[in-house]
Amino acid sequence: MASRKNAMLTTEDRRWLTGEKVYEGEHAKQQRYQRRRDIRERIRNALLDFTTLFEHLDADERAKLFGDRTTGGDLDTELTEGITDAVAFLLYNTGFTRAIGGSTVQNAQPTLAEQVLDEAIRRAGRRDDLLVTDVSVDVEATRTPPERLLAALQAGEDLTRAELRYLLDSDLVDETDLQACLRQVLVETDDAPGDHDG
Fold first, then answer.
1. 40, 55, 70 — which closes off a domain?
2. In which domain, by residue range, is 161 found?
3. pLDDT tens digits for range 20-58
4. What is the pTM of this model?
5. What's the CA gap between 67 and 57, in Å, rounded?
């Protein structure tokens, strides 16, 4: 990751953000401040560049970047992950989790994420002469600490696919522990009476 060419982040930015580079010594505090400021400025400028890209990047260039999605072509895994993380980064930092977190305030103002998502879908539709008359995103979410799900799994409770995926994607749960727990649950299931054919 750190070896990619400079883009919104430089190689040094990536090394610093991932902990590969550490500022030490007399000027370390100022260097960290400067690095953070530079990153913020480049992120802001990159986001502003999307207006130009959306309006003016040639269709052939977009096809080279994303592939021909209409024929079922697949993006490469790295690019797919990058797009997913970009959307997640934007949604998270514009208040999407607050919007789906079960606000009890009646007639609350929409979050920036809700406003942006609504308008982005409308603009994308207009590019293909589609009048988007309604935007509705249905999200079911519950605040669930990964440790609670792991404890439930260790206790032999059934977890949904969504809960298992949440555990696997969580940085808070050690993957080795989760694999060991899954193996144990599978062994216990295989050894349970009446579960065998024949």
1. 55
2. 146-191
3. 999 999 999 999 999 999 999 999 999 999 999 999 999
4. 0.75
5. 14
